[in-house]
């Protein structure tokens, strides 16, 4: 069984009103689409896990004309689940059509972050190639990895708080982890709007969780 990890940049033409609003908001850090299905009435039902501001997400849901029902269940101040129903999703242009025309399986979660979508699909090698070709005709697609699928354990992001994850993103973007280092701890703290001591603590705690997860996965 083969897999391919893809990064897709849909662009505004292939985004719903809700997706466009969320993509432009810095308050929503990351969304993980856990499961979804289209009902007989052509209503899209989906469940997501989100890192970010629940009030900002709720406002976007309330203003999106395509959303007919939703519910937000908080985990803590910066993480929450979202269940929503979207009407007429089948009527707007969608790059997802490429998946419907082939025999394959999606491996959740589908991650939405920084305006791009990261997705893993399983299928025959030839089928995966055809899907990538079809997607490339409509949207920007990058192949991140491909090979034999052996399953995956607990996601590393499950181990991190939203603040820790945000700190890692900022540090990576600022070049803090480049070799040689291009960004300083002060740069990270400035963007996070916190002290250098707090930024350092967030990064060290996040790094600890990642290292522990890596060692545990090898030992297993």
UniProtKB/TrEMBL annotation:
UniProt keyword DNA-binding present: no
InterPro entries, A to Z: HTH_bacterioopsin, HVO_0513_N
The keyword Transcription regulation is annotated on this UniProt entry: yes
Q: Which UniProt keywords apply?
A: Transcription, Transcription regulation
Q: Which residues form the HTH bat-type domain?
A: 160-211
Residues in domain HVO-0513-like N-terminal? 18-149
| Name of the featured protein | Bacterio-opsin activator
Q: Which organism is it from?
A: Natrialba swarupiae
